[in-house]
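pasting for the record
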Amino acid sequence: MFNYAVTPKDRIAVIIIILFHVVGFIGFIIPPFDAVFLNIVPWHLLLMAAVILYSHKQDIDKLAVFALLIFFIGFMAEYIGVHTGWLFGNYAYGETLGIKLFNIPLMIGINWFLLIYATGVSMRRSRMKNMLARIVIGALVLVLLDILIEPIAIHFDYWHWTGGSIPVKNYVCWFLLSALLLFIFEQFKFKRQSIVAIVLLVMQFVFFMGLGIFN
């Protein structure tokens, strides 16, 4: 039987996620403050990762291994994409995501971990019993999120595309990479988790959808 009782620990995590996304959204849409908030984007991602670690139920050692694996695969995929154009297309990272290694922001690996974990947990909490269905639908959810993210990322100097247009190849590769990483998530067979990861995923949609309306 699924036990999805929300604990005080979960409530704290949910409050932090909602509060920091709301504050960040307000900061991004007010011109005098947007430069300041852009500088703290890497810290925001680190905070969300800390919240996930704080709220995760059991299997913390497995979660650490999973996080490192997703970080590495996500970072290497971005490395291939930036330096060869074979994945995603021809693009380069700006300064918003912070410190770079080989022209790839270290935070991009953290971001892949957050997205895959949040989506994986959300799919596991759904009524879908078929693993393939969870992976495919989860990957489609992440492609939809990327569609929302792309114009905002370009506007706020997360990354830029050569020629200015976003290639279809980007979305195809997002789907394939997301599906691979969600397959890996499924192999870890984490204990059932609370709503924290779902809230994080929903707030990502709300955040970028809102910025798309105001920018």
